[in-house]
Amino acid sequence: MTATPASPLTDPSVGSTDQGGRAPSRPITVVLVDDHRLVRAGLRGIIDAAADLIVVGEAADGSEALAVVRAAQPDVVLMDLSMPGVDGIEGTARLRDAGESARVVVLTSFVEHDRVTAALAAGAVGYLLKDSDPRDVLEAIRSAAAGHAPLDARVARALLPNSKPADPAAALSGREREVLLLVAQGMANKQVARQLGISERTVKAHLGNVFRHIGVADRTSAALWARDHGVV
Questions:
Q1: Domains and CATH numbers, the chain
Q2: Distance of alpha carbon 76 from alpha carbon 79, whole angstroms
Q3: How far apart are CA 119 and CA 83, in angstroms?
Q4: Fewest 10 Å CB contacts: which of 36, 61, 172, 195?
Q5: Residue 2: per-residue pLDDT
Q6: Angle, vertex CA 60, rays to CA 220 and CA 54, nearest 5
Q7: Which residues contact 90 (CB under 8 A, 6 or more apart)?
Q8: Per-residue confidence (pLDDT) for residue 65, from 0 to 100
Q9: What is the pLDDT of residue 128?
Q10: How far, in Å, CA of 169 to CA of 146, rounded?
Q11: What is the pLDDT of residue 3?
Q12: Confidence (pLDDT) at 7
């Protein structure tokens, strides 16, 4: 599978053809898989507001996703990766092994090389980050339904040769590691600033560097990464 090189989340040909035989006048059907109800509700509102898209089912993990997809037969599945029970990578693999034709687009906060490659190997055709513009998510759904492979630009960079550092934690400075540790302990930026005797603006700058080094898009994912990699 290859990424679309121009704009990773858009494709000018989307909507004009249907490689799966779907009539152009029929809305693209979508199943949402995420363990957070608020996330699913937000995505449903965005998707259902588009005239050519409609949500036809929801699931809270990869196991439930298989049953929902079998019943709803959607064109596209938006799949979170980090979920209790059966995660998104295993859930995607189960859909593939069951012979389901729905095209899986990952929507997550993680952009680590290993997670991206595992998701694509499991059968996902696209990979987006949760801080994407809502319009880009809609275009990615249309792109996947049309047979393309929508990838966020940051994800595409993670797949480049030699883009994966041997040890992301080793790239962190001492101060960045301290900030990450306190964030992983649940401290807000203001509390981190007070604890380290630095400004809140400096904390935000350090966090931005941490996100880039370890390949995540937000503080929650950074905290999870820190716990998974023994930083806490």
A1: 28-158 (3.40.50.2300), 168-228 (1.10.10.10)
A2: 9
A3: 14
A4: 36
A5: 39
A6: 105
A7: 62, 122
A8: 96
A9: 94
A10: 39
A11: 40
A12: 39
Cβ burial, residue 114 (10 Å; 0-12/13-18/19+):
exposed
- The encoded tokens of residue 72 equal 């709803």
Structure pTM?
Answer: 0.64
Instruction: Provide the residue type at 71 as one letter.
Output: A
Confidence (pLDDT) at 159: 76
């883009």: which residue's tokens?
Answer: 163
Distance (Å, whole) CA 99 – CA 13: 27
Residue 139 tokens, joined: 């275009």
Rounded to a whole number of angstroms, the CA Rg of the chain reads: 19
Largest CA distance in the chain: 61
Place of tokens 């960045």: 176
| pLDDT value of position 211 | 82
The answer to whether 206 and 175 have CB atoms below 8 angstroms apart is yes
pLDDT along the chain (232 residues), means of 10: 40 42 76 96 96 97 95 97 90 93 93 84 92 94 95 81 59 83 89 89 84 79 80 66
Task: List all residues 6 or more positions away from 192 whose beta carbon is below 8 Å from its beta carbon.
Answer: 179, 182, 183, 203
Question: Taking each helix axis from N to C terminus, what angle separates 113-122 and 88-97, rounded to the nearest 10 degrees?
Answer: 20
Nearest alpha carbon to residue 56 among 77, 74, 82, 35: 74
Q: Which is nearest to 216 in space by CA: 151, 149, 131, 136?
A: 131
Sole residue written with tokens 């990615």: 140
